[in-house]
């Protein structure tokens, strides 16, 4: 090799190394969105009603991104009410400022705008967003978030990849206006049962007799991401004549078992693969309410390309009772060998070998305050403060806003009156905690924890006791963000509280959430370091007691 050739080779190697170095140090890609949030009129379930639209759409735009992308959404609130969006299942590492709950953020006032910026840091999977103020969630404004793996990180069902990746946003629906629903609850009444079920913003005859929601080509495989975006009812999801292979749940790859139907609880998402292996024709995709009287159902059409054959009227019925559903939950397993957002296997985290440092038992409490129905945990019913809890904590002005740890780790021995206060408890940073939800009610509940994924290790009928730990799955419980609790039953989760911030633990049954069945977990890093939590963003809205206050000192630089 002559000197000129050697020089060219050396220069080429240097360019490659430089490009790799730039790539390694480069910021993750940005995706920009602009949302105009308005009311509009849609005919749903045969009745025109007011719906929250985003850029004229219901459901709202799909956020389709890769792990670690920077998501920037400029929200223009053109409603006549304050507005916030929360990102169900997004962990917002070090960044509860963008969680979009009244306890973490001042609402976006009418005719103003606010820009959210967040990352699906080290996350993959299927999620959704929705408006979180009052009962706005019952008026729409929701949409899908789909996070795909970065290039070069293997996906356990991607050889070959599915032909298409579709979203199914299914949920119960009320024809009552969301402001009417809020007034009913404020008056101590209930919102009653849902009027029907929507699939991707359509229901009733408009859905069953309308154009197909998806078109399949015979011999191809399709990914369906299914989320329960409703406010009350669990759903059973099935496709006429087709089995489904479960591959992902709440951001975790699962063991790939086959199912003919799947229960999906409020706030919960999963992905299935469906083979178009039947005789070409039309087939019903069905979502039916579970565990409530006066069951409702919605049927959409999946059409094989070129088909003119209508679907069979023989639609499979949903399973009966919740014992079947509990047994199905026990069949779900974490895929220990699959990579998720990082190249290391999911199962490299051995949660079952970590010592529990604290147990918090949260029992659903129902009672009456001034003759009006309220819900809560352990005798405390949450109410939002005029100053968001996170802001009061950050500016050190919690006096007169809230007090920490007014609720105990166990339910009171004797049921007393409900205390209606901002409910904030603390967790020591990076401790491994067991949380047990106990639901003494006759109806289903579903719980979500912002900022985290947890391991749903056990559930069963009756009351929880420490002896039931021997029934826990300490090997391959699915890491997820939402867990159901069956009537008069319990569910147990485990997690490490390693994400500093102020995080909402809530019922997904929005009537109960509105009436106080929620709390906030304050997780503070003793180092007060930017390694553990970001400072308040420069564009953060201010309200309540923090208006006009000087900024607190910055957190210490990360080391």
UniProtKB/TrEMBL annotation:
Residues 1-26 form the signal peptide. Keywords: Signal. Residues 37-149, 165-306, 386-526 form the Plastocyanin-like domain. Pfam families: Cu-oxidase, Cu-oxidase_2, Cu-oxidase_3. This is L-ascorbate oxidase-like protein. The keyword Lipid metabolism does not apply. The keyword Signal applies. Coiled coil: none annotated. It comes from the Eukaryota. One of its GO terms (molecular function) is oxidoreductase activity. Belongs to the multicopper oxidase family.
């Amino acid at each position: 090799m002559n000197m000129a050739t050697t020089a060219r080779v050396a220069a080429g190697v240097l360019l490659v190394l430089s490009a790799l170095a730039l790539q390694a140090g480069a910021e993750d890609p940005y995706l920009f969105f602009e949302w105009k949030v308005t009311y509009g009129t849609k005919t749903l379930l045969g009745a025109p009603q007011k719906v929250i639209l985003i850029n004229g759409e219901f459901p709202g735009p799909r956020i389709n991104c890769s792990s670690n992308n920077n998501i920037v959404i400029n929200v223009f609130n053109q409603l006549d009410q304050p507005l916030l969006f929360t990102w169900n299942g997004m962990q917002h590492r070090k960044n509860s400022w963008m969680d979009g709950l009244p306890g973490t953020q001042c609402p976006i006032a009418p005719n103003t705008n606010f820009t959210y910026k967040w990352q699906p840091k080290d996350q993959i999977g299927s999620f959704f967003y929705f408006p979180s103020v009052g009962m706005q969630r019952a008026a729409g404004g929701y949409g899908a978030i789909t996070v795909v793996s970065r290039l070069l990180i293997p996906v356990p069902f991607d050889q070959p990849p599915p032909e298409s990746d579709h979203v199914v946003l299914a949920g119960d629906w009320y024809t009552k206006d969301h402001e009417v629903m809020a007034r009913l609850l404020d008056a101590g009444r209930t919102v009653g049962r849902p009027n029907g079920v929507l699939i991707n913003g359509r229901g009733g005859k408009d859905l069953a007799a309308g154009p197909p929601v998806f078109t399949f080509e015979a011999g191809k495989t399709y990914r369906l991401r299914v989320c329960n975006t409703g406010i009350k009812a669990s759903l059973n999801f099935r496709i006429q004549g087709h089995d489904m292979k479960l591959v992902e749940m709440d951001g975790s790859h699962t063991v790939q078992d086959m199912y003919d139907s799947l229960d999906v609880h409020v706030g919960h998402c999963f992905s299935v693969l469906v083979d178009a292996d039947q005789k070409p024709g039309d087939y019903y995709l069905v979502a039916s309410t579970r565990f409530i009287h006066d069951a409702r159902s919605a049927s959409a059409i999946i059409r094989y390309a070129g088909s003119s054959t209508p679907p069979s009227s023989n639609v499979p019925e949903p399973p009966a009772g919740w014992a079947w559903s509990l047994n199905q939950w026990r069949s779900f397993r974490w895929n220990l060998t699959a990579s998720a957002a990082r190249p290391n296997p999911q199962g490299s985290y051995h949660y079952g070998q970590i010592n529990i440092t604290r147990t918090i038992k949260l029992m659903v409490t129902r009672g009456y305050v001034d003759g009006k129905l309220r819900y809560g945990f352990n005798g405390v019913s949450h109410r939002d403060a005029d100053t968001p809890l996170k802001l009061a904590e950050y500016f050190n002005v919690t006096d007169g806003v809230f007090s920490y740890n007014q609720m105990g780790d166990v339910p009171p021995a004797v049921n007393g009156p409900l205390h209606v206060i901002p409910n904030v408890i603390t967790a020591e940073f990076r401790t491994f905690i067991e949380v047990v939800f106990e639901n003494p009610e006759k109806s289903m509940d579903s719980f979500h924890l912002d900022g985290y994924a947890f391991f749903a290790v056990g559930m069963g009928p009756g009351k929880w006791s420490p002896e039931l730990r021997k029934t826990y799955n300490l090997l391959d419980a699915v890491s997820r963000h939402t867990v159901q609790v069956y009537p008069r039953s319990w569910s147990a989760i485990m997690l490490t509280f390693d994400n500093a911030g102020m995080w909402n633990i809530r019922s997904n049954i929005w009537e109960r959430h509105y009436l106080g069945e929620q709390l906030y977990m304050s997780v503070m890093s003793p180092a007060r370091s930017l390694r553990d939590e970001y400072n308040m963003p420069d564009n953060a809205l201010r309200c309540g007691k923090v208006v006009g206050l000087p900024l607190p000192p910055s957190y210490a630089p990360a080391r």
